[in-house]
Amino acid sequence: MVTVEALKDIKAEATEWRRYLHENPELDYRLQNTARFVVEKLESFGISHIEAGIAETGIVAIIKGGGGDGPTIGLRADMDALPIVETSNKPWASKIPGCMHACGHDGHTAMLLGAAKYLAATRNFKGSVALIFQPAEEHGRGGRQMVQEGIMDRFGISRVFGMHNGPGMEVGTFAICNGAIMGSQDNFDIVVKGKGGHAASPHKNIDPIVIAAQIIVGLQTLVSRGTDPTKSLVISVTKLAAGQNYSIIPENVEIGGTVRTLLPELRNFAEQQILASAQGIARAFGAQVEVEYHRHIPVTINQVEETNMAIRAASKLVGSASVDERVGGVMGAEDFAFMAEARPGAYMFLGNGPTPACHNPAYDFNDEALSYGIGYWVNLVENGLSA
Fold it and tell me: Is 136 found in the same domain as 50?
């Protein structure tokens, strides 16, 4: 069992790595510098089995334990940044205009590198650990692509684990739950097709703006009147494009939005009812609609055994009182869900202190959390693959 105190030196190195990555953020799959940095660090730790170029810039590295044969568990960190102008004013703020690590993926990468250094030096476990450095989490595609390219079978991964920092949670605390922990994300596009004309003669037209307004209100009642109030469903309209002239009723209106839920079956409900509601309202006004529903990211579901493994690893590091075992599910989506669909897994939150929220231009990962994340990964491997 590792302690936070034993990781003092690695934490100092990880802080340097994290701040370098924060200064040099990269987006989506375009992580050439980040991937090069990660590979160089892994090689410097004496790790010989490193495969890069997975899902364009993703990396999987294998550390074989010193305790003999056993299963392989995967530990995943995301590496990409966001297209946001940073306002943190930290000395290590982004040097790349319009790009910053606003979600802490720099910290996630640094923590997994810190764990890699420790595990490569000690190898106090059976079997192997697969270190998964993933691109394009913010696009929701990198995790799925790594799975589609066969990393689970290729590296013999039997279980997989993810972790994310939690602004507002005290540093040195963890939070997890069994079952759904992160919501799904689906998107929809609706085109309302009316009949345009002069705004002074609305009776001669079929006004798609009025119809679109009715559709938007109708979508909200799918949640408030169509679903069990004890179950989670969010339908948010986030895009609206119509005419550009005061005197012209346009031909068409475009509506777009997102659907979030912690229950996979509610994705089916939303898809069916958004189509039915939009069609019914449009038909009542003599208009037509086109509806496209895009399934994007599934619900992230923690499995019982893997959740218990995660709880034990965190509790050995910080004590059970600092591990919330029943945190409520978060409606934000996470493409670790694709990995957790492919193999049993668990996703953990790590306290980041009283920082601004993720995706905020003033956000910065809290370096004091690094040793806790590194220690969690190490305990998870050494306890889960006991030598």
Answer: yes
